[in-house]
Amino acid sequence: MALLEVSHLDVGFNTQLGSVQAVNDVSFQIKKGETLGLIGESGSGKSVIGMSLLRLLPMNACVKGEAFFEGKDLLTMKEKDLQKIRGERISFIPQNPTASLNPLLKNGLQVSEVFERKGHSKENSWKSALKVMERLMIRDPGLSAKKYPHQLSGGMRQRLVAGIALSLQPELVIADEPTKGLDSLTRGKTIEFFKHLEGDEDRAMLLITHDLDLAYEICDRLAVLYAGEIVEMGPAGELMDLPSHPYTRGLIKSLPKNGLIPLEGRSPSLLELPGGCYFGERCCHHKKECSCKHPQLKNSGAWQTRCHLN
Amino acid sequence: MVKIMKSANYFGWHPGPFPQINWAPYHKILTNRTVTVCLMILGVMVMLSFLAPLITPYDPNAIDLKSSLQSPSVDHPLGTDHLGRDVLSRLLYGAKTSFLISLSVVVFALSLGIILGGAAGYFGGLADEILSRVIDIFLSFPGIIFALALIGALGSSVLNLIIALGLVHWASYARLMRGQVLSVKNNDYVSSARVIGASDRRILIKHILPNALAPVIVLATLDMGHVILSAAALSFLGLGIPPSVPEWGSMLNAGKEFMRTAPYLTIFPGLALTITVVLFSLLGDGFREILDPESEVMGLGAA
């Protein structure tokens, strides 16, 4: 049985301009110990999926569908029960480590808070926090723990935030764009760090990123999102080597090492999605059928594609 | 001597040259000139007011009609009033009254404002709506008239004066606190705390309150001066503080009839009031500088 089973997830936001459909009918599964990568460009709904699973979205979000975590629906369970799952069984590595650390708490306290919350004494929590920081490859944890977040480098903050999320050994980690805003050196270290995490057999991970290299190196499977829906999902290596959806192909071609060929056009407004294939207008293999009928996800083994061409 | 030192060491006591004080946390306060100077002057004033019985030989309430309305002299450095009471003693004892009243009013108003404003901001919805309207109502009264009415209704005493002024002032703290909480609670670190499973209480106390408090503290410092002024105004009008308690406002009131013949009766309490209020204003400005996170990096430890 899958650890997390998301089916027909829809997320809309009520705004003054009307309802923005950020996520459309997304279904996926994550098995125990597996790493699934959600990739796609900005605004494709990656982060919204991650946040909706832990119900972190603002009040104006309208979430439909099901997300079963070990047989219990995360989207409908009581806030109190969810609070027990948060942090302990499913944890979240937020997108912006600088903003995600309380500027007035010392680094060590930010980590030890997790243990204190579980009922450990202050001293024990502090000791456990130092151990966590040591494992995070933070130099001289005793000294860093007594500093404030603004005194750490970006990479260290990133690892600290990850450490907070991992300290209670959760079964599932949702990592929201861990390499966003990092320079290439720090990014390399972060990738290294996540690779090291991925090695843990028991821990499943949902990695949300637009960093294709990171996704390729770490994930077992990849799901490509476009305009709020999954357009292609399959094993990471094969998907990156032999993408079948035109959008995935475009994404991979746009990487610097593959020639930096940009995708033409822009993704459609989520306020009014086109009738046919959402990618239709930008697709170089455009057919008549593409603009009148919305393609469905087609299964072929472990592979799923949403395209009329295949 | 060596023997004594040795025996002291035996009990685990190591005589060091000086006790080690960690000044680092106070670095920002100590390097801000305005704040240090204001704190020093105010500290001296507070000390003088509490040591008044040791400094002045006169009882502030001792009536001596023989020596009434004397100009400043060696015996009475600031002169005497129409009942022959020593102005310097009354000024020093009055400082104590003013500081204590002001402190109690600010603490009372601050706690009420932080709790109610914080609750309104954090919980939102109907609670916010109700509390905000109450705050609006309190803010819409002119302060001194509202305090007058309250003292009129409650009766004239020091406690009632504190309650009245507290009720006048809490709403501005509540409104500021509400706004602060509203902006702080949308920070990522608050949702991060929720993600690791922290409770509402913990989030409020550990994550929201400390980050929301800075401007409220600045306002409280500025208010210390304002409250001293309001209390003086009320006792100038003969409300709140009984005539037996020396207070700057009532001293001004008593002196106003002799302004031509004995101007020192109004000049000295007036000066004392002005200086205190200005000091608190400057202190508030200094605190704002210190607490503003964008003003210079903290000088703690090695980066």
Defining key terms:
heterodimer; A: 310 residues; alpha/beta; Rossmann fold; eight-stranded mixed beta sheet; four-stranded antiparallel beta sheet; 11 helices; globular; B: 303 residues; mainly alpha; MetI-like fold; 13 helices
Kindly describe this structure.
The complex is a heterodimer of chains A (310) and B (303). Chain A has 310 residues and is α/β, with parallel strands linked by helices. Chain A has 2 domains: 4-78 and 173-274, 3-Layer(aba) Sandwich (Rossmann fold), CATH 3.40.50; 90-169, no CATH class. Helices cover 32% and strands 24% of the residues of chain A. Chain A contains 11 helices and 12 strands. Chain A has helices at 46-53, 79-85, 107-117, 122-135, 141-145, 154-166, 184-198, 212-218, 236-241, 246-253, 288-292, and strands spanning 4-15, 18-30, 35-39, 61-69, 72-73, 90-93, 172-176, 204-209, 221-226, 229-235, 298-300, 303-305. An 8-stranded mixed β-sheet of chain A has the order 6-7-8-3-9-10-12-11, sandwiched between helices. Chain A has a 4-stranded antiparallel β-sheet with strand order 2-1-4-5, covered by helices on one side. In chain A, a hairpin with a 2-residue loop joins strand 11 (298-300) and strand 12. In chain A, helix 3 (107-117) packs parallel to helix 6 and helix 6 (154-166) runs parallel beside helix 7 (184-198). Chain A starts with a strand and ends in a 5-residue tail after the last strand. Chain B is an all-alpha fold and 303 residues long. Chain B is elongated. Chain B has helices at residues 2-10, 27-31, 33-50, 52-55, 87-123, 125-140, 143-154, 158-184, 188-195, 200-212, 214-236, 248-255, 264-291. The longest helix of chain B has 37 residues, at 87-123. In chain B, helix 3 (33-50) packs across helix 13 (264-291). Helices cover 69% and strands 0% of the residues of chain B. Chain B has a domain at 87-295: MetI-like (MetI-like fold), CATH 1.10.3720.10. Chain A binds chain B through residues 54, 56, 83-84, 86-88, 91-92, 94-96, 99-105, 113-114, 117, 143, 146-148, 150-151, 161, 164-165, 168, and chain B through 187-189, 191-199, 202, 206-207, 210-211, 293, 297-298, 300-301, 303.
